[in-house]
Amino acid sequence: MIGFAEHSPEEPAPLRFAGLAGGVFRPAGVLQSALSLEHRAPQERMARAVTRALRESGQLLCEAGTGVGKSLAYLVPSLLFAWETKRQAVVSTHTIALQEQLLHSDLPICRRLFQSDPALRDMAAFREALLVGRGNYLCGTRLAQALGPQTELFAEGERGELARIAAWSQTTQTGLLQELNPAPPSEVWEWVNADSSACSRKHCSPENCFFRRARAKVREAHVVIVNHSLLFALLAAGVGPGDGKPGFLTPDDFLILDEAHTLPDVATEHFGARLTSRALTRLLSRLWHPGKKRGLLKTIGTRREHEAVERAVDGSHLFFGHLHEELLGRKPLVRLHQPEWAPALLREPLAELAAHLGNLEGRLADGPPLDELKDSRKQVLAWQAGLDQALALADPGHVYWAERGGTTRFPNTLLRSAPLDLAASLRSVLFSNPSPLVLTSATLAEGGKLDLFRERTGAREAVGLVEPSPFDYERHMRVFIAGDSPSPTAENGALDDTWLADYITFCTLRIAGGSLVLFTSHQTLRKAADACGPHFAQAGRTFLRQEPGRSRHALVQEMRAGGNAILFGTDTFWTGVDIPGRALSQVIITRLPFESPGHPVSEARAELLQEKGRSPFAELTLPDALMQFRQGVGRLIRTASDQGVVTLLDSRILQKNYGKRFLAQLPQPRHTVMTKQDRTRLFPDENDRSPPPSTRK
Q1: Which of 68, 101, 70, 38 is nearest to 471 (CA)?
Q2: What is the C-alpha separation between 371 and 513, in angstroms, rounded?
Q3: Which candidate among 178, 364, 444, 583 keeps its CA 20 to 30 Å from the CA of 189?
Q4: Cα 132–chain centre separation
Q5: Are 432 and 421 contacting, i.e. CB atoms less than 8 angstroms apart?
Q6: pLDDT exceeds 70 at position 692
Q7: Is 362 exposed, middle or buried (CB count within 10 Å of its CB: 0-12, 13-18, 19+)?
């Protein structure tokens, strides 16, 4: 896939980088003397631990609280190590925001740092690259094919999109889909992106293909930035040296995983199977669309192949229709317990289609159309094998389920599986690798210990380090708890919704800066948004809400620019949101973030623990909720000068035994309890600038 340079194992790696890295972070070191950045003892300790892991091919787990400066603490040693040993550094993040910070802020700081010191100056020439999935790149070969012999595959409007893509290809520097605004229809982009065997060294070069150009840049880079999703998709697919050789994606590379608290969720997502009705429909439509009379097989196929596709389409409708009628009519999520839980209505049509496509391959001359056909046949065979495995519940170490997704107009049915033992999966792809590995985040520990994270991920041999945030939370953060919140399990949901909307409106409008309101339920978010929205409009406040079609990145950017906007979000908004200053002056947590115990993965893992006589709540549910709670609270204070309010609208934190565990996660040990009767007196009103009452326990 990608490669940097061969590194001879007989040749000992130079160790000069360790002394150089130490000189950067020590008191009065290069960071202070050249860039006037303050010396941070926690940052120095982390940098030394990273240096040791690189030098000894070790593994490191490091919790580094906000303000430690963890990005520089791992980037500087990694860049120096990569430069001297000619081993590539792979840095993986969970969020786009952190990727952009690394590429546009932290790596330029490293370059200026190296340029400022004679001993480091040569290393300022380090090269960086961003690695994204192939499907994000425009392929010049496939574009030319679509504009030429395959133009008849497209309707008139789609041909207009092809022309727009062709014009854009003359000006873009990267060929990345996210630069093309508005994005073209997926049906068009699928014919011109690089995710195809037609995009290969046989047909493409860096001169005519953006993916090949990007790949060449990645191959020559000292540090490659990637996201967790792509990294684990590649690891799960077996990309890498293999056979116990050093390296994760390429021979002898080493890996830094930032935002590593997301590791269990990402691994669960990518180490299982995922089949969707929408993906199968797209695959079959690309081959032959009976209604539109077009597709890849229009010119290279015969009536035999067309009819085979049509029988597969009919089989798909029958199979997924059966799932909706028998399994998903009342529940959107159903765990699959017994093998052969549905009739194999798709097995024979897919097998027949694969056979016809195989016969057709033998009749075609070498060229892009043959490559496209081979890709399609591989996907049909993969679908057939995946469906057989799902019907048989083939892997006893996985949990299987069916899920209803999409919309009423564009439904999507998913068949999914996930491993029960994450630690075993992660050990096989991460922790058994002899290359250096560093995992870091602001939230890995619980109670100052990394034991639970080790057990969950299989990081048995990793050295542990916990560096708390140096920020003065007692001065800069105030915590308010609504002591009169109704129980989330109360039968009168309408009363609860009314109470919640009233409290959110009250707390957001009394804070002059922006507020991030975090929910655990999309339904609750929608109800609260409908109730609060008119009040925000009347107050002249910008109101942003998570909803289909709006990217998280765009919403965060809009809030950052707004100054005093109010943003409602669930799920991913609890982590990775970085909005310093007045634009985020309050974080409201509407409910403690306990995951629904009814999800098949949670249910199956809980059963596994119960069989061993252990507590699912104590070992799964509570630790996950504590981690997400810490992440949510951590959205507030992002710089040493930030200040603001954390407002908790769940009284269970005061009433339940586990509430003390949540309170212990707060970096500010004091809190104020309020109710609707006294909140006007206790909660700050920044609009009139009256001095707030003193905080009490």
Answers
A1: 68
A2: 56
A3: 364
A4: 13
A5: no
A6: no
A7: exposed
Nearest to 76 by CA among 41, 36, 118, 30: 30
CA 384 to chain centre: 28
Crossing angle between the packed helical segments 263-270 and 228-236, to the nearest 10 degrees: 40
Helices (H), 514-656: 522-538, 552-562, 600-611, 616, 622-633, 652-655
Amino acid identity for residue 695 in this structure: T
Question: How buried is residue 683: exposed, middle or buried, by Cβ count under 10 Å (0-12/13-18/19+)?
Answer: buried
Burial class from Cβ neighbours inside 10 Å (0-12, 13-18, 19+) for residue 276 reads: middle
Q: How remote is the C-alpha of 5 from its chain's centroid?
A: 29
CA 479 to chain centre: 29
pLDDT band at 494 (very low <50, low <70, confident <90, very high): very low
Closest by alpha carbon to 624, among 603, 602, 604, 646? Answer: 602
Average pLDDT over residues 388-409: 91
Query: 176 in helix, strand or coil?
Result: strand
Task: Specify the DSSP class assigned to residue 540.
Answer: T
Collapsing DSSP states into helix, strand and coil, what is residue 461?
coil
CA separation (Å) from 71 to 65, 105, 110, 304, 634? 12, 10, 10, 58, 17
DSSP one-letter string for 75-106: HHHHHHHHHHHT--EEEEESSHHHHHHIIIII
Residues 473 and 444: their CA atoms lie apart, in Å, by: 19
CB 591 within 8 A of CB 653: no
Please list, in sequence order, all residues whose beta carbon lies within 8 angstroms of the beta carbon of residue 478, skipping any fewer than 6 positions away. Answer: 644, 645, 646, 668, 672, 684, 692, 695
Residue 555: pLDDT band by 50, 70, 90 thresholds? very high
Residues 680, 674: Cα–Cα separation, whole Å: 9
Q: One-letter amino acid identity for 217?
A: K
The pLDDT score that the predictor gives to residue 203 is 87
d(CA 58, CA 433): 10
Question: CA 597, 598, 604: angle at the middle one, nearest 5?
Answer: 80
Q: What is the pLDDT of residues 629-670, one digit of tens each?
A: 999 999 999 999 999 999 999 999 999 999 999 999 999 889
Q: Is 506 helix (H, G, I), strand (E, B) or coil?
A: helix
Is the Cβ–Cβ distance between 218 and 3 less than 8 Å?
A: no
Peptide bond into 182 cis (omega under 30): yes
Cα 596 to Cα 333, 441, 521: the distances in Å are 12, 25, 10
Tell me: the pLDDT tens digits for 234-279? 998 888 887 778 999 999 999 999 999 999 999 999 999 999 999 9
Token output for 473: 């939370």
- Closest-CA residue to 269 (of 526, 572, 545): 572
Residue whose tokens read 């949901």: 493
Q: How far apart are CA 617 and CA 634, in angstroms?
A: 24
Contacts of the segment 678-682: beta carbons below 8 A, 24+ positions apart: 679/482, 679/506, 682/480
Read off the pTM. Answer: 0.90
CB-based contact 576:570 (threshold 8 Å): no
Coil, strand or helix: which one is 318?
helix
- Whether 44 and 34 have beta carbons less than 8 Å apart is answered as no
3 state DSSP class of 16? helix
Looking at residue 198, what is its pLDDT? 87
Q: What angle do CA 166, 169, 171 make, to 5 degrees?
A: 125
What does the DSSP 8-state code read for residue 102?
Answer: I
What does the block give as tokens for 158? 């789609």
**Distance separating alpha carbons of residues 519 and 339, to the nearest angstrom:** 37
**Which among 157, 210, 213, 214 is positioned nearest to 188, based on CA atoms?**
157
* Ordered DSSP codes for 631-654: HHHTTS--STT--EEEEE--THHH
In Å, what is the CA distance from 90 to each residue of 222, 257, 365, 617?
A: 9, 8, 40, 35
